[in-house]
Amino acid sequence: MPRILISDGMSDEAIRKLRELEYEVIEKHYSQDELLSGVLNNYDAIIVRSATKLNGQVLSTVEEGKGIKFIGRAGVGVDNINIEEATKKKIVVCNTPQSSTQSVVELTIGHLISSTRHIATGDRKLRKNIWAKKELRGTELSGKNLGLVGFGRIAQGVSKVASALGMNIHCYDPFIDESIANENNCTIHANVNDLFKNCTHISVHCSLNKDTYHLVNQERINMMPEYGFDGSKCGRHIVNCARGGIIDEEGAFIALNNGDLMSLALDVYENEPLYKSRLIELENFHGSPHIGASTVEAQNRIGQEIVTLLKDFFSDKRPPN
Amino acid sequence: MPRILISDGMSDEAIRKLRELEYEVIEKHYSQDELLSGVLNNYDAIIVRSATKLNGQVLSTVEEGKGIKFIGRAGVGVDNINIEEATKKKIVVCNTPQSSTQSVVELTIGHLISSTRHIATGDRKLRKNIWAKKELRGTELSGKNLGLVGFGRIAQGVSKVASALGMNIHCYDPFIDESIANENNCTIHANVNDLFKNCTHISVHCSLNKDTYHLVNQERINMMPEYGFDGSKCGRHIVNCARGGIIDEEGAFIALNNGDLMSLALDVYENEPLYKSRLIELENFHGSPHIGASTVEAQNRIGQEIVTLLKDFFSDKRPPN
Fold first, then answer.
1. Domain of B70: which CATH number?
2. Per-residue model confidence (pLDDT) at position A226
3. By the CB < 8 Å criterion, does A117 face chain B?
4. Does A262 touch chain B (CB under 8 A)?
5. How does pLDDT run across B100-138, given as a tens digit for each residue?
6. Chain A contact for B291, CB < 8 A?
7. How far is CA B318 from CA B19, B308, B309, B311, B321, in A?
8. pLDDT, tens digit, 9 for 90 and up, residues A234-257
9. How far is CA A27 from CA A8, A16, A205, in A?
10. Looking at CA atoms only, how far is residue B255 from chain A in angstroms?
11. Distance from the Cα of residue A32 to its chain's centroid
């Protein structure tokens, strides 16, 4: 039976199901050196999250016909997998793009409100017995324009909740399906700059590639208006629960520090884990440690989806993603 | 012209408008001793938020026909004003119940997601350079029952956003308008216990009175289910952005500490300012310093409403609230 390596963990239920299928399941996280030494030739498939880096060097150690034939990414982004090298080795790569949508949507809305209402700051001060009621005046999301960079499944989910909060939805997406944008009452912009010029609040929902690297930078932050369409001065707010590197953290730091940017909320960073970043010196920054998909529900759905993908692969059905 | 005392601050725009009406506006916060010494006889009206305590003793110093004839509460709750004594002295008391609705709605949703996704905790750890990705697994709001204690304007606003997040809405309100509940797809419960027995998430939106004092207590917390209707184990979550005292903080502390309660988020407390509470020792508590109405937009609307109320009062029109 197929030997499956679970490299970055998976839901207990999914592992139980794989064992019911009589697959041999090994839960083990190898170091980069071990991966380079060719251990992938001991398995038929590997399931990773983002911690395991299957770069070109690692994948070049795989012997065709002997080593892994399938890489399952338990999550969305595949920037930790060298697709080109995998293709060369005829390894099938699948991800689970839909399983974590709702979890990321909820975290994005949580970060938006935490920013505009100083939730992390208020709590931090309470824990120091400082009652910062007067200095923590916030602003409402209602009556403001939310600019979504990308309008895929997650952005569409965010737009539904943000609309219920009274925001107007704007987006930029070079691959946009106009009918979906129209269904969501979303104003489409022809380029990124126009999006920034129209929105006091920006949320990033695209993948990281050479076109989106540092797409959010100091110059574009300064294009954003500081007043909502309701006339109130809310300042500029940016959230990123998509991928690190889309925001130029150095530029954002400067804008936060000089007051051009009112708040920044990040779940993802240019370098993870975040360590000794200057951002944490600032009161108007707050962050979470890349937990967009980190919910019981998303991990269960991801596990179920991986089980289905493996089952289909090893019974010779073509996987969808 | 009327002399108006602004005791706890008001929006600049509203003060400017009062001066345009040629009212004499004095911005000054008196101590409780000064209030007891009869200073209210130097004014025709006083505008307070929650900091100024106009209790029976203070109001008994007012001389009818000479002192204040009007108390404006820039906000909702009037528990800092002794209405009985005010009535005796023929002082009209008005509040501005609608102005802060949206701000409280947004803070409530923000606290709900901050609880289920550990936003304050994650940020606190990031600032200590701790990448707590693994331990901060959360749960989704989608697929869960939200129980609203009270179904007035704020609860209705919360229900709209929570529905967009995929929650099912339940409520208990002895004064409920059933047609409004039906419009909001809200399941009405006949008593408080039934509400708790059906909901993994509870948010408080009633006023504080003898019937609601310690309405949320350890016994009721233990009535709540720990699984959502989607089958996932999310635990029990409670939010209070209404009034301190509705939650028994001692009981909630015990439930949080022994794991019966998964999270508690408070904007209001039994004693404010919160100081040296045991709650801040717990990771699964987070709080804000009574900032429900503390937004630029709410304060502007409150100011405008107070101006209208004063104008109507001093031109002999009957105020609405």
1. 3.40.50.720
2. 98
3. yes
4. no
5. 999 999 999 999 999 999 999 999 999 999 999 999 999
6. yes
7. 22, 11, 9, 10, 9
8. 999 999 999 999 999 999 999 999
9. 8, 12, 32
10. 20
11. 24
The CA-atom distances, in angstroms, between B164 and each of A60, A87, A106, A127, B169 are: 47, 41, 10, 32, 11
| CB-CB neighbors (< 8 A) of A166 in chain B | 102
Residues 156-195 of B with CB under 8 A from A: 160-161, 163-166
Residue A229 lies in a domain: yes
* Within-domain flag for A321: no
Tell me whether B308 touches chain A (CB under 8 Å).
Answer: no
Which of A294, A302, A304 is the mutation pick for testing B, counting most B CBs within 10 A?
Answer: A294
Of B205, B243, B286, B301, which residue is the catalytic one? B243
Phi and psi based region of residue A156 (left: phi greater than 0; alpha: psi -120 to 50; beta: remaining): alpha
Flag if A138 and B164 touch (Cβ within 8 Å): no
Closest of A276, A285, A220 to residue A256, by C-alpha: A285
Distance from the Cα of B109 to chain A's closest Cα (Å) equals 8
Same domain, B52 and B117: no
pTM of the predicted model as reported, rounded to 2 decimal places: 0.92
Structural domain count, chain A? 2
Q: List helix spans (H) across chain A.
A: 12-20, 32-36, 56-60, 83-88, 101-116, 119-126, 153-164, 178-183, 192-198, 218-221, 249-257, 296-314
Taking each helix axis as running N to C, give the angle between helix B12-20 and helix B296-314, from 0 to 180 degrees, rounded to the nearest 10.
20
- B290 at A interface, C-beta within 8 A: yes
pLDDT of residue B243 exceeding 70: yes
Domain that holds residue A256: 101-287
Q: Is the predicted pLDDT of residue A319 greater than 70, yes or no?
A: no
Tell me how many residue pairs between chain A and chain B have CB atoms under 8 A apart. Answer: 205
Mean pLDDT of B259-287: 97
Q: Is A56 on the interface with B (CB under 8 A)?
A: no
Q: In terms of domains, do A72 and A212 share one?
A: no
Q: Which of B119, B133, B165 comes nearest A120 by C-beta?
A: B119
